[in-house]
Structure formats: C-alpha cells, structure tokens
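Support request, please re-run this one:
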Amino acid sequence: MTVHFSRAVRVVRHVFFLIFLFLIPVGLLSCGQGPQVPSSTGHYLLVSNSSGIYSFSIQSNNTLSPISSSAQQSASGINGMVYVKTPGGVSTPTLYTIQGGASIDAFPVNGGVVGAKSTLSLPSTGCTLSNLDAITATPGGHYILAAYGSTSSYSVVAIALSGQYKATSCSSPQTISSSSSTL
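Re-run finished. Output below.
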C-alpha cells in the first residue's frame, strides 16, 4: 500500500506542478492585461540623421506619414535627443538635442512641426558641460539629465528647467567609473 501511496503523491505533485506552470503565464498576462498598445492618434515620431531632424505623424493604423518631405531643421552630428512635453512647467513641447559639444539645443514642437533652434541658457556658475554623450528628461519635464565623459568615467548632471529655453541650476556632477560595481 505504501508503493501505491507514494506513487499517488508523486502524481499529485506533478499535477500541481503542471497547474502551477500553467498559472504563471496566465497570471502574468492578467496582471498586465496583455500587450499595451497606446492610442497613436495625434502622436509624432521625431528622428535625426546626418541631414537634420524629420517629423512623422503616427496614423491610427500605426503607420508613419512624413510631416514634410525634407528635414524640418538642418542639424548634423546629433548624438542625443529627448522630447519634453512640458519643459519647466511650460506647455510648449520642446525637442532638446546634443551634438557632442558643450551645449544643449532646444527646438519648439507644435503639431509635429519642429521650430527654430535656440540654445538652452545655462546658469553662469556651477554648470560646466563638455563632450555630451547622452540626454534624457524626467517624466514631469522639470529636469534634463545629461551624461558626458570618457570610456573610463562618466558624469551625470541634472539641469533644472525654467521654461523651454532657460535652466536655473545644475546639480553637482555624479561620476560613475567603469571600475565601479554599483551606481
């Protein structure tokens, strides 16, 4: 009777294991409710290449339609871009770009049309940028994060925005070396 009992226990254990394996993907899908595809109506894709910045409208069937057949703004060597919907609390969406130098350029964006370039005005003290490599923004659009450095060490600085063309302050650069095991 113990042989049959241990076999029954193994069968029950395997059944529970299979049910568990089945429930994991079902549970994960129900948590996220499957893939989320945002509504694309009224959204734009901004890209750059060696000729400049191009704007595409994202159609309701998720295809791209160019806003213009030529570059909206001529810009060469852009190695980083970030779109900020409300920079520094202002309701004028802005595209910020870096071109490997020590400045950040700002382009107003209205309905997918990229406006004229202005250079972001940085505070006169405490904000030294050089060899910019990457740029991003905080979700609320109040800060731009810029990274710069060399292959062995990078610095990241937070730049507080006051409107779309002016920065009020910069954080002290946080240095990350390639030999660091934690950030």
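The chain has one helix and 13 strands. Helices lie at 2-32.
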